[in-house]
What does this fold into?
Amino acid sequence: MTGKVLHEGEGLYGLPRALAMFAVALSVLLSVLDYAIANVALPTIAQDIHASPSSSIWVINAYQMACLATLLPLASLGSRLGFARLCRIGLATFVVASVFCAMSHTLLELALARALQGIGGACIMSVNIALVRFIYPHAEIGKGIALNGVVVATGVALGPTIASAVLSVADWPWIFLINLPLGGAAMVAALVYLPATPRSLSSFDLPSAALNVVAIGCLVVGLDSLAHRSGPVVAVWLLLIGGAAFFQLARRQTGRSDPMLPLDLLAVPDFLIAFSVGSLAFVASNFFIISMPFTLETVLHRSAVATGLLITPWPVGIVAISPLVGRLADRVPAGILSSIGLCVTGTGFVLLCLLPADAGNLDIAWRIAIAGMGFGIFQAPNNRAMMVAAPRGRSGSASGMVSVARLWGQTMGAMFVALTFGFVRHDPTLRCLELAAACAYGAALISSSRLVRGRHRGG
It folds into this structure.
């Protein structure tokens, strides 16, 4: 790209926009693809490293916790270093961590390597939508966010297929080694095509960043300890420390013009509703995504390869509907589109709950596809609602909060799956699907409240 610094709302046009979005897409694809592959390979990994199904979820949780704990500090850092530069740092970190994942032999080693991957992923995810907001003019931001959603869904779609292909011919470490060529290509694209953006001149608040990491880390580990009923006294202490750190962080951030913890954005009603809807929707999705491979392998007796292929209709449904949603997101209110999408997703989960014990592959696949299409309808309009509700000049914070909503929901969803596996003795996977449907319908109800607010404003 040229040395020109883009300003928010200005946007790029033609080939420069296409190349910049290509760089963003490759970066996002890298982080999402690996997450999707690890989900599908989880039963195989658990068996190989001799971990129980509930404890093996730390292969997922370690990534999500590290990503969640560092996301807001990195979004703040990105405003100071430059969004493109932080994206490049994240790509390098992610690739190095992938090598460590492949070399791991125990659950602890793999969880630590996945945590490093999570930090790299947080660098990417904390700035990707902020970059979209600079690449696209304000009137077309819905298209950019929808395209970003297509990339995310494509990564999730490719994940099961790639996982199945890799596991059919090689051991599970190769699902991490395939990140190396994609990471190299993403790094080159990010170096050449990502635009420069304005940088904040304020200093980075290191104490607040440390408080944020302590708060999120202690809260997530404490909740996980309670979920696994391992050391309840330690779990309570972790929750108390996390709560105290969060309280101190909130006090420290009060009154700042560009806070690391953007509680001021949550004071904007439209932003708060969109954030809540996104979080609960991703709780629903993780109830489904994490528990479904165990359902397919242990209840419906599918192989690891078949399991990967049968999960694929979920992201394929998202990708199939996304072009239409991209055209509608800038014109149809999120209160309508997102509510419809979440109701469709909830219905898909209900249909999965009703699967007969001898269900065929097609019978499973079309139900998952319906749920995926609904999720594709919900996602882009809701993310757009969050970005446009944020004041100008707060792209970094808003982008970080979009990812926080997703990761917090996914992390809590994974935690609730572990809790369900730990406490429910009879058919816990079915209970997970029922809870997925309940969360999706609950998110739809919250989303529909935007229509009531819209009528009141109109009046």
About this structure: The chain has a mean pLDDT of 83. The two ends are 47 Å apart (CA to CA). The longest helix spans residues 15-48. Residues 203-257 form one domain.
